[in-house]
């Protein structure tokens, strides 16, 4: 029989092996995509590529169809981030001042889009805008992206507001400051980390969204992920891999900014699952 020490060592090796296998399983598709984006061949061949080249990136930036989708995605993500940060911050400040029971109910309502599949949200918006033909395609996309971005800005701002003592605002009011001055000089600066983190999440999810965007695009206004899906159906080549690498690089840059601003452990481990 194995001694307790040997059993612990064996268990540690098993856990290490499982973690390593999981990491390889998760990272291998990314590694393959990155290598194939630099494939020097003119066709999609076996992995690994025999030679490397940047021609697929050159074709990516020369492709008017994908470039138009990227421009739309970027403008849409910026507009979504600005509006979601402004609306989410205002909503979070209002929610933080409510009674605990009302706060829980209102927060649950605002966070409900997180548990509803994006396909359902996109289809519902498509039906709504089909009946009430009120907005142009870009505004429809913006409305859809706001629905999925607002929960993140509200949640992260609430996290930032949680650590602010009420006595600070009361002290400012007692010293002659009005409510507006208290908010802009005390509350907003102290909550800026949560607001920034929420804005970064909003930008990232807006850039990567497919489920909602695919229902709200038209032939002239479409996002980059939707353009990639369309290209995969009509003309599959490694330009798609190059676009995927660009999106991964952008997402990685956002994660670095998020880590610098608030810390990934706090934003992901505590900010989403624990108040």
TrEMBL record:
User: Subcellular localization, per the record?
Assistant: Cell inner membrane; Cell membrane
Which family is this sequence assigned to?
Belongs to the binding-protein-dependent transport system permease family.
- Matches recorded under SUPFAM superfamilies: MetI-like
* Family matches, as Pfam families: BPD_transp_1
What is one process in the GO biological process aspect for this record?
transmembrane transport
UniProt keyword annotations, A-Z:
Cell inner membrane, Cell membrane, Membrane, Transmembrane, Transmembrane helix, Transport
PANTHER family, sorted: INNER MEMBRANE ABC TRANSPORTER PERMEASE PROTEIN YDCV
Q: Name one GO cellular component term.
A: plasma membrane
- UniProt-recorded name of the protein: ABC transporter permease
The residue ranges crossing the membrane are 12-38, 74-97, 109-132, 138-161, 182-204, 238-258
Q: Does the keyword Nucleus apply?
A: no
């Amino acid at each position: 029989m194995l001694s307790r020490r040997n059993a612990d060592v064996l268990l540690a090796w098993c856990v290490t092996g499982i973690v390593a296998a999981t990491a390889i399983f998760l990272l291998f598709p990314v590694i393959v995509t990155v290598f194939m984006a630099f494939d020097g061949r003119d066709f999609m061949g076996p992995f690994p590529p025999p030679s490397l080249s940047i021609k697929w990136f050159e074709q990516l930036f020369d492709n008017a169809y994908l470039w138009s989708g990227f421009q739309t995605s970027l403008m849409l993500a910026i507009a979504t981030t600005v509006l979601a940060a402004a609306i989410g911050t205002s909503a979070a400040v209002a929610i933080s001042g409510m009674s605990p029971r009302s706060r829980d109910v209102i927060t649950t309502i605002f966070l409900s889009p997180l548990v509803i599949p994006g396909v359902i949200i996109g289809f519902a918006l498509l039906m709504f805008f089909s009946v009430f033909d009120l907005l142009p395609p870009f505004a429809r996309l913006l409305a859809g992206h706001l629905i999925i971005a607002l929960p993140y800005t509200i949640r992260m701002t609430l996290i930032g507001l949680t650590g602010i003592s009420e006595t600070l605002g009361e002290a400012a009011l007692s010293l002659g400051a009005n409510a507006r001055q208290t908010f802009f000089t005390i509350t907003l600066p102290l909550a800026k980390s949560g607001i920034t983190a929420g804005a970064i999440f909003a930008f990232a999810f807006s850039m990567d969204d497919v489920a909602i965007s695919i229902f709200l695009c038209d032939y002239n206004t479409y996002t980059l992920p939707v353009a990639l899906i369309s290209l995969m159906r009509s003309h599959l080549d490694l330009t798609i891999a190059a676009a995927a690498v660009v999106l991964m690089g952008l997402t990685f840059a956002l994660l670095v900014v998020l880590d610098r601003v608030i810390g990934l452990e706090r934003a992901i481990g505590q900010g989403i699952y624990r108040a």
